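Before relying on records like the one below, remember that each one covers exactly one chain. Contacts with other chains, cofactors or solvent are not represented anywhere in the record.
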Amino acid sequence: MDATESSKLSDGINAPMWMFWRRRRYVLVFLAFFGFFNVYSLRVNLSVAIVAMTENRTVQYPNGTIGYVSREQEFDWDSTTKGYILSSFFYGYIFTQLIGGYISNALGGNYVFGVGVGVTAGLTLLTPLAAHAGFGWLIAVRATEGFFEGVTFPCIHAIWSNWAPPSERSRMATIAFSGVFTGTVASMLLSGVLADTLGWEWVFYILGAFGCLWFVAWMLIVKKSPESDPYITTKEKEFILATLQRSAAGGEKVQHPWRGILTSKAVWALIVSSFSENWGFYTLLTQLPTFLRDTMHFELQAAGFLSALPYLVMGLLLSVAGYLADLCQIRRWLTTTQVRRYFNCGAFLAQTVFMLVGAYILRPAPTLTCITIAVGCGAFAWCGFAVNHLDLSPKSAGVLMGISNTFSTVAGILTPIVSGQLTASGSENEWRTVFYIAAGIYLIGCVTYWFGVSGELQPWSIEAREREREKQRQDGGQGYANEGLVMEQKP
């Protein structure tokens, strides 16, 4: 069932959409938002904290005259060492992308997502202890955090495949994903303040504790599917099942069409697009605080605030972009393929231009403005590559996300190392090179996705094969397995 047909059905709940607590699927979206808030606040905190951990601090020594006494760095790490520390999260993260998509089908995406974030939060509380124990211990803890957090994105698509009607797919996914950028903003702002006032250790204590509280709420409330949720209304459950065109039986073992996946042009276009967006994203995510502090000469708190600004803009735009993407499909202004292509490639092209302009100017106010616009435009790209997996094959969406996010993780590993090597002295020309590389990769992603994207259910997908078998059975005199569902039509 496509988005237009799905929008004609009613969930029987007489309440506006902003009253999310009346609809069980939007309670899930609300908690998923804070799940991704934690995913990125726990990932980003070190990018700001490491500035405080390694800066040359000074204190005023009052003796009747104005004088300053230098204090040694708490951790004497050069830019290359910091690059390895910042990328260590992804050493573990890359190994659990495919695993996350696979086990979420077997165990339930809700359990795997919750455990992934919960364990990461617990390990975050141990980060100060690991840092004081030594460079190797810090890398080991961060890599383990990445290992558990690596399941989160593949798992959420497994959850959407059970909960998201086609007419609400972009909206539900992008609202949840906006937690990524809200968490990034909160982490950058809070980390700078905490590091300056209470000390950098409290960055990890406070954010880790919040993640643990979220874990308890998620595990108590969120269920694998509408069929297993005791609090969902019958009409909402039937509405979701009908729009997804499946019966309430569920529980079938999924056999993923690996050959079809790995030979699909649409899948590879999605992979390249995901890698491209994440290269630029992780470049700025891990390096922007250092760039603003060391090259643009902002104070730590100001650097933390200004580093958060682009992600605040993106977080605000993401829900708007998701709503517009769904609206374009429901009103039949654009096909699903056109929505994915125009939103994704238009954003990439804008990001290419603004990264180039910002790199060319390289002055505090105009460069930060260009970076903010570039990151903000990424909200529209997420309506393409980040949701596209559900179009191609909903039941394999978790695995598809695992594959594309594996390549994205390579970007997360490489960008801090490459940036660290290129900006050894922190000169303006070195940073220009970093931004030019990001702009070039955005452009490659734009061209590749434009010619390879598809928003249609693929012939190799599990759903397409099931429908073909069902059609053959119907032609032989058998009806649909879920024809007993009676839906209320919207007036």
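The chain is about 70% helix and 0% strand.
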